[in-house]
Amino acid sequence: MWHTNCGDRTLEGTEARLFAETLWDFAQELELDEGDYDVGLNVFDRLTYGQKVSLLSIIGDGLLKLDVPMRKLTAVVEAAIAAVFDHLNIVVIIEIDEPEIKSNWRKMILAARREVGAEELPKENCEDVQEWLIEIEELSDLILWDADYEDEDIYIDKPPEEAQALKDFMCMRDDYFLEVPEDLKPKQIKAKLSELKKLCQSICEKSEGI
User: Fold this and answer.
1) H or E element: which one contains 189?
2) Would you say residue 145 has pLDDT above 70?
């Protein structure tokens, strides 16, 4: 269960499948590069490989499992979700630029968007990258409230009183930027990736045919 922009919920149907597919593909890319694969999101990219895997496990459980307690939202966990969607941006661009690499990211995006009621959508073979980035942003907005996770420097550079006043105005918890994710050791990383793979595969199998 997750506190999303559309209420407290767990992802279902084609939305869940797209997120699970993207999450696991992202985890595999990180594994290949031992965490050095960057998506252009500093809050996430600067973390260690162990911290990144820890966060992917947290958001996978929270967004894809029904029996997981609600977790407080902090900069690093929201940045991890944003990183998954940034990875989706990347793989869609690759799908368009390198059609010889068979994939169905655009098809899954359309299915997820239709499921939430979207009507004016691009064709599956559309090669306009901006069109797809807009559709992906629409999907990420169903989960993420905003992009506060990118604004850490704004608060750090201000005097404490001004920073606190801004947090109060933005309805932001005092500890939003303070969480340090667990830095998993190699054996822990292997175990978390195995658990994540099983979770993502189970979601994709459940959603087949939807």
Assistant:
1) helix 186-207
2) yes
